[in-house]
Amino acid sequence: MGRINRITLAAEVGDSIDLAGVAKGQVWIQNIGSNAVLVSYIKNPNGSAITAIPYANSYYTIPAGVAYQVPQNPTAGAVAQDQQMYFYSVLGTTVEVWNQGS
User: Fold this and answer.
1) Strands laid side by side in the 67-72 sheet
2) 33, 50, 34, 41: which is closest to 88 by C-alpha?
3) How many CB atoms lie within 10 A of CB 87?
4) CATH classification of the domain holding 36
5) In tens digits, what is the pLDDT along the chain, a chain of 102 residues?
6) What is Dmax (Cα atoms) for the chain?
7) Are 20 and 74 in contact, with CB atoms under 8 Å apart?
8) Total Cβ atoms within 10 A of residue 71
9) Structural domain total, the chain
């Protein structure tokens, strides 16, 4: 059945989720807010945006209203299932993550 998590991001304040995938399935990441969200596996240790150097090349953007569906498998998949996934938004937004394989 999986887990559904809703993360509300304040402007310029990051948050994270541990996908903890242990079974095959799918991960849906949907930006239901009105601003873009940045997604990374690397947390900037000084707390600034994940777009700051040297982390500027280690994130992807999910535009407002867009959903991504990616395969999940404990040994191989499109996203790393065994670590934290960090979310950041310059203006704030809300993200839903459905981890079907947990």
Assistant:
1) 3-9, 93-99, 25-31, 67-72
2) 50
3) 24
4) 2.60.120.10
5) 577 889 999 888 888 887 766 677 788 899 999 999 988 877 766 655 566 666 667 788 999 999 998 877 766 555 655 667 888 888 999 999 887 765
6) 39
7) no
8) 13
9) 1
In which domain, by residue range, is 74 found? Answer: 3-99
pTM: 0.78
Rounded-to-10 torsion of CA 63, 41, 81, 92: -40
Q: How far apart are CA 40 and CA 47, in angstroms?
A: 13
- Residue 85, both tokens: 């996934």
Residues in Cβ contact with 51 at an 8 Å cutoff, skipping those fewer than 6 apart: 38, 59, 88
